Amino acid sequence: MRAIIQRVSRASVQIDGKIHNKIDRGILLLLGIMDDDNQEDIIWLTRKISMMRIFNDENYVMNKSLIDINGQILIISQFTLHASTKKGNRPSYLKASKPEIAIPIYENFLHTFETETGIDTKSGVFGADMKVDLLNDGPVTIFIDSKMKE
């Protein structure tokens, strides 16, 4: 799994011109899924993201986690995170899972994140044409890959 973590003051996702979900202070997470992603990837990523110290403490030092600040998370499926740009000018998405494989993994990730962390977890709709609006706080944007463990 690949993820883009963005610390936000607020974020929302619109589908068909209507707000589907929104959060206040927390993380907007863009999540890319591959065929070989499994429960180990989900657990590792859940723990890493929820405990990552990217929120400011009283001294304005990034020393608090999403759990520490009682923040929220908005998780959006993003197959383009697995784009290959090696050849030509048109990205290839062959590494990204097809919906029949990715949807159960995505739903498992959402469920696991909320049950393991107790964090208010919101999401988009897998495969929908979504408009994502965010106010990136910092800005703080981090790329993470569960296979590389970084």
Structure description:
The protein has helices spanning 39-51, 99-117, and strands at residues 2-15, 18-23, 26-32, 55-56, 62-64, 72-77, 120-123, 130-145. The chain is α/β, with parallel strands linked by helices and 150 residues long. It has one domain: D-tyrosyl-trna(Tyr) Deacylase, Chain: A, CATH 3.50.80. Strands 1, 2, 3, 6, 7 and 8 form a six-stranded mixed beta sheet that branches. Strands 4-5 form a two-stranded antiparallel sheet. Helix 1 crosses helix 2. The chain starts with a strand and ends in a 5-residue tail after the last strand. The mean pLDDT is 95.
What's the CATH architecture? 3-Layer(bba) Sandwich
For the termini, the CA-CA separation is 11 Å
Strand/helix succession: EEEHEEEHEE
Name the overall outline.
globular
Q: What name does CATH use for the topology?
A: D-tyrosyl-trna(Tyr) Deacylase, Chain: A
Q: What percent of the residues sit in helical stretches (DSSP H or I)? A: 10-25%
Tally of separate domains: 1
> What integer value in Å does the Rg equal?
15 Å
Structural class: alpha/beta
Portion in beta strands? 35-45%
Q: Can you count the helices?
A: 2
Uncertain segments: none
Summarize the helices and strands and which ones pair or pack.
Blueprint: E1 2-15, E2 18-23, E3 26-32, H1 39-51, E4 55-56, E5 62-64, E6 72-77, H2 99-117, E7 120-123, E8 130-145
Parallel strand pairs: 3-6, 6-7
Antiparallel strand pairs: 1-2, 1-3, 1-8, 4-5
Helix pairs in contact: 1-2
